[in-house]
Design brief:
By secondary structure, this protein is an all-alpha fold. It is built from 13 helices and no strands. It has helices spanning about 5-20, 35-45, 50-60, 65-70, 75-80, 85-105, 115, 125-135, 145-150, 160-170, 175-190, 215-225, 225-235. It is elongated. The protein binds iron/sulfur cluster (SF4).
């Protein structure tokens, strides 16, 4: 395949290739409705989806609706979600979220991003997860994988997740955005690692402007004389220069050059 020119053509090619590579993608957080997904996504900060899935069955059995969670005793919630880390802040967030859903949205998790981001513990990434996965609406969550891959694929030059999202929104059709994000996340976890991307095993290598540049950069660094000298200077043991013992019959040695 000829390397596509321009970000839009590249995004189309990436999307096609990732659909072939990961035909079925789904959110790894177990949930049955928007309330459960929103709660699980808030809990997933700084921990794994597997860990969240271990605590949410007990949490949702005890608090099956926003109204139940809104009235919860924080100590009880903390006990259930403790293993996800940051459990006091997360408890405040999910109880606050449930109270806001109850008081401002009639007990139903809203679907508009501008409403979602007003809920405690809910930023654009979490809001877009809920929109795309629970409601099937356009939403492109940008996490660390999506940001990194988008920059390597030259779909954006931005570091700020909100700006990355806006750039990608201009390249990906609305109905494809949620799955595009999930596929980039999957590819980031399996192939395009943060430190050493596996370009040789990557289905995007033929369209990726960054393909194999990491290996070249590593080799260049290794043969750079500045690096070699620096290493040698640092590691070489300091040799003492000892004047040879003068034999009585030897010609006198030249004095050591004080400048050398
Ligand atoms: S070719 Fe390399 S840098 Fe580009 S997406 Fe694949 S693994 Fe990442």
């Amino acid at each position: 395949m000829a390397r596509p020119r321009g970000a839009k053509a590249r995004a189309d090619a990436v999307r096609r290739l990732l659909v072939e590579e990961y035909p079925e993608v789904c959110c790894a957080l177990d949930h049955r409705n928007p309330y459960e997904l929103l709660t699980a996504t808030i809990l997933s900060a700084q921990t794994t989806d597997v860990r969240v899935n271990m605590v949410t069955p007990a949490l949702f059995a005890r608090y099956p609706t926003p109204s139940d969670l809104a009235a919860a005793d924080p100590a009880d919630v903390e006990e259930i979600i403790k293993s996800t880390g940051f459990f006091r802040a997360k408890t405040r967030s999910i109880i606050g979220m449930a109270q806001a859903v109850e008081s401002r949205f009639g007990g139903e998790v809203p679907s508009a991003l501008e409403d979602l981001v007003t809920l405690p513990g809910t930023g654009r990434k979490t809001g877009n997860v809920v929109r795309a996965v629970a409601f099937g609406l356009p939403g492109l969550p940008v996490d660390t994988h999506v940001g990194r891959l988008s920059r390597r694929l030259k779909l954006t030059t931005e570091d700020d997740p909100v700006k990355v999202e806006l750039d990608l929104n201009g390249l990906v059709p609305p109905e494809e955005r949620g799955d595009f994000s999930l596929r980039l996340i999957e590819h980031g976890r399996r192939v395009c690692f943060a430190r050493s991307p596996n370009c040789a095993g990557c289905v995007l290598a033929e369209v990726c402007p960054s393909a194999f540049t990491f290996e070249r950069a590593a080799k260049t660094k290794a043969v750079n004389p500045a690096n070699v000298k620096k290493t040698a200077t640092k590691k070489a043991p300091v040799k003492k220069v000892v004047a040879p013992r003068q034999r009585p019959d030897a010609a006198p040695t030249a004095p050591l050059d004080p400048g050398g």
